[in-house]
Amino acid sequence: MTSTASAPSPTDSAIPTRRVAWASMVGTSLESFDFYVFAYFSAYFIGPLFFDPLGEFGGTLAAFATIGVAFVVRPLGAAIFGHLGDRLGRRATLLWTVGIMGVATGLIGLLPTYAQAGWLGAVLLVLLRVAQGLSLGGEWGGSILLATEHSGPVKRAFYAAVPQLGSPVGSILSAVVFIVMTLALPAEELAAWGWRIPFLLAIPLLAVSLYLRLAIDETPVFKAVVAEHRRDRVPFATMFAKQPLALLVAFGAALLGIGSYSLMNTYTINYGIGTLGFSFQDLLVATTIGGLLQLVTIPLFGAWASRIGSAKVVAWGALGTLLITFPMYWLLQFASFPVLVGTMIVGGILPTMSWAALGGLMNDLFVDHYRYSALSVAYAVAAAVSGFIPFVTVILGEATGYVWWHPGVVLAFLSIATLVSAVAAARMRHAPEVGEPEQADVVRADA
What is the pTM of this model? Predict the structure, then answer.
């Protein structure tokens, strides 16, 4: 190994860490906006517009399966962009991921529907979802590293939480767009052409994201890896050879944070309209209120992770979610708007605790020269599994007659998996980092 005496410290960067974290968060916000626009769209519009011959239930299944397509290809995107991130750099790779996502989302807004071009629109939709999924596979891990590798050891867990704000920001923006549109346009015009507007908005948002990311520098950690000639030829292979158990732990730790969003923001929208009798607008308002609260709780949970450790915060969030899961879904059956808002708030805060500290947990698990690949793959595989949660939940609902507890079974499973993984992560030795006293190329024992 090359001596680390000349390795730059994160604090040596001329660019303030807060500015880098902001650029990282804006990029993840665009990715989340694009994802949630499609999630809201699929819960209400995609079946009739693109899969009309399949009928109501078949169209719903096809819509949720189309969501799943993007998640299935995420691991491939993680492998591709993780390799680029560990070989070429975090910043350059993130410019590609955000660019692909923005363009693909904008093109969805130009697709012909089934009534206009038959199955051509559905085929093109799936292809664009594949492009979105590849992009998403490389975005999250790079955004976390952009923030953490510009920060010092003390505040690393906090800055790892900042990109996580992108999820509620994207959710809020997409929900607000749909709320405004449902108020401004009659239902027939919304279905005829209005649904295209949220997707086309991705283009100006893409321009803002690219501008911010072009203005920042490569991370000091990656610069040190390059200076010390520590880049792996195939980071993907090195990651599996050296830390297979850590990858499994990271995957499990991510399940609740990702899966709860799929359950609450996609399946619950469809379930609330079709079974509980809520209006689409009420569900979007409730989701937006929950997202606004997360803008406060995510930084607080990130600060808490800086004090007690990211893995412990993830574990507390998973345990709390497990305890409130079935009472929450039981209350939801009373179908009043205040109960709906309360469910979105309570059901959002505790999983958000696990979500906020997830980046810090994963950053602590893996060494720097294959960290982009490791974070991206673990997160992408968890996302691939979570992408089918609405599909699995609707099958479970159909099999049980949509009994009140059927979504709770899914959320409880996710909570248990994340709780066990977080406890395991807390017992593992943290990877040394640039700027820490024991910085070296050491891999912790996975046992």
Answer: 0.82
